[in-house]
Amino acid sequence: MPSTPYVINQTQARELLAQVDVPQILRKLFRDLAAGQAVQPAQQLVEFPQGAGDFINYLGVLAEDGVYGIKTSPYIVREQGPLVTAWTLLMSMQTGQPLMLCDAGELTTARTAATTAVAVDALAPLTANRLAIIGSGKVAQAHLHYVKGLRDWQSISLYSPSLSEDLETVSLLKTIEPRLTIAQSLEAAISDADVVMLCTSSAGPVIDPSSLSKPALITSISTNAPRAHEVPPQSLNDMQVFCDYRLTTPGSAGEMLIAGEQHGWDKSAIVGDLADLLSEKVQRPDYERHVFFRSIGLGLEDIALAHAIYRLHP
Asked: Matching InterPro entries, A to Z (predicted)?
């Protein structure tokens, strides 16, 4: 074993990730979590002095694979705009030695989107055929990639306000999924949708679930803004709520924090998380009302993908 870890840059990580079945790795991780073979502590936020930024540490242990790790992501305040990076350190539980240091940018994008895909597969009605995506950046593109084959989609509609003049991104999206329709408005995109995936960096609500024409699955991700949320916090009271990990998500998800403080919502209302769903402790929901899935991103997801990459590395 080398005494110094492999260092994997962003380009190498992208190439290696393309060889990995990311959703399948995440499914195993959540089953391990349910079986007590994995440990997921809460995120750790550390602020820099004098308002110079902060960093978040995402920790995790995968006992069956014999590894633990830490993803650390700084938010560095600069005059020209904040700088955000992320690196994942993979460690051996047998030797205590570092195995790999990996640029986590590609890992973060892949695990964020693939976690949503795992949730869509576990939660969406088997008959769901109308998919809406809000957002068009790298994370939205990855969502499209991982979800496009999960159901017999008759309609895949995407809306992003920046797309009207961005022909390059439109072309890229169509390459990922030729059936994709670019909607001219948010309302047109979500009309009659069975699944709505919110893939934005918005700090505040993007849609109001009450405006949807029928009960749907709504998925939402995190961004770096304080208490960021993509649905109105009060809407949680009217939905069946699921999340990636019930022990940590309510302490970080913006709409859950605000709903608890201002709208009488309680985290005990969470129906289940991905560990519950994939171990079949919790059943697929009925759709008498909207179903909401919230992920904040787990250290375990980064560590599981880092381990998969490490196993591929010569």
From this structure: NAD(P)-bd_dom_sf, ODC_Mu_crystall, ODC_N
Strand order in the sheet with 272-273: 181-182, 155-159, 130-134, 195-198, 217-220, 291-294, 240-243, 272-273
The residue among 232, 187, 237 whose CA lies nearest residue 213 is 187
Q: Where are the domains of the chain?
A: 6-107+301-312, 125-297
Say which CATH topology domain 6-107+301-312 has. ornithine cyclodeaminase, domain 1 (3.30.1780)
Indicate the SS3 state at residue 134.
strand
User: CA dihedral in degrees (147, 151, 155, 158; nearest 10)?
Assistant: -10
Give ∠ CA 307-310-314 in degrees, rounded to 5: 160
For 14-58, the pLDDT digits (tens) are: 999 999 999 999 999 999 999 999 999 988 889 999 999 999 999
277: closest CA among 31, 14, 6, 7?
31
Q: Which CATH class is domain 125-297?
A: alpha beta
Query: Positive or negative, the Cα torsion across 118, 243, 142, 86?
Result: negative
Of the CA atoms within 13 Å of residue 146, those in its CB half-sphere come to 28
